[in-house]
Amino acid sequence: MDAGHVAAVARIEASAFSDPWPASAFSELLERAYARLRVAVTDDGTLCGYCVLLRAADEGEIANIATEPSVRQQGVAGRLLDDALAAADANGAASVYLEVRVSNEAARALYASRGFRQVGRRRGYYDRPAEDALVLRRTRP
Ligand SMILES: CC(C)(COP(=O)(O)OP(=O)(O)OC[C@H]1O[C@@H](n2cnc3c(N)ncnc32)[C@H](O)[C@@H]1OP(=O)(O)O)[C@@H](O)C(=O)NCCC(=O)NCCS
How confident is the model over 14-38, as a mean pLDDT? Predict the structure, then answer.
């Protein structure tokens, strides 16, 4: 991801989440060495997904991932996540964490398919609507 992608990323973000990150959040992370931001594009070059991996010591965090509604269930998020996990592994991360809404069945299926398992629950973590977060962890194979 570079600065030229941020507007398209923010459009997907706004359609994907009830509490979306502002465009500035992506722009700021582009300046941070601990953040790895990647996009997916269709064959015609249209941006259709993105993934944000944060690195800290020997841990990683999938801080954001989304795909454009018209490309869902075609493997795009799986490829983005596989790429982020490979980078975390190569960077020495023993574990990668993330939070997900309890009701987000699509994301939970995605994460389960990549070896994430529940390790905690944060009560009332999300707003709009209020909902618990599940904390998932994937350990390096
Ligand atoms: C969650 C999300 C990123 C999945 O993106 P996607 O491009 O459709 O995912 P993929 O096609 O790569 O699917 C990956 C896996 O998840 C499963 N999956 C995806 N959507 C699913 C759904 N609606 N129901 C059940 N399983 C689903 C797929 O079966 C697939 O499993 P497999 O690799 O074992 O075959 C997408 O639905 C999205 O952007 N949602 C809104 C944003 C969001 O919730 N992000 C996550 C926040 S924690």
Answer: 97
What is the amino acid identity at position 127? Answer: D
**Domain of residue 132, residue span:** 3-139
Task: Report the CATH number that the domain containing residue 61 is assigned in CATH.
Answer: 3.40.630.30
How many CB atoms sit inside 10 A of residue 34's CB? Answer: 12
**Torsion angles phi and psi, residue 33, rounded to 5:** -65, -25
Residue of 48, 62, 71, 73 with the most ligand 1 atoms within 8 Å of its CB, for mutation: 73
Q: How many domains would you assign to the chain?
A: 1
Ligand 1 pocket, residues with Cβ under 6 angstroms: 16, 65-67, 72-78, 100, 104-107, 109-110, 113
Q: What is the pLDDT of residue 104?
A: 98
Å from CA of 112 to ligand 1 middle: 10
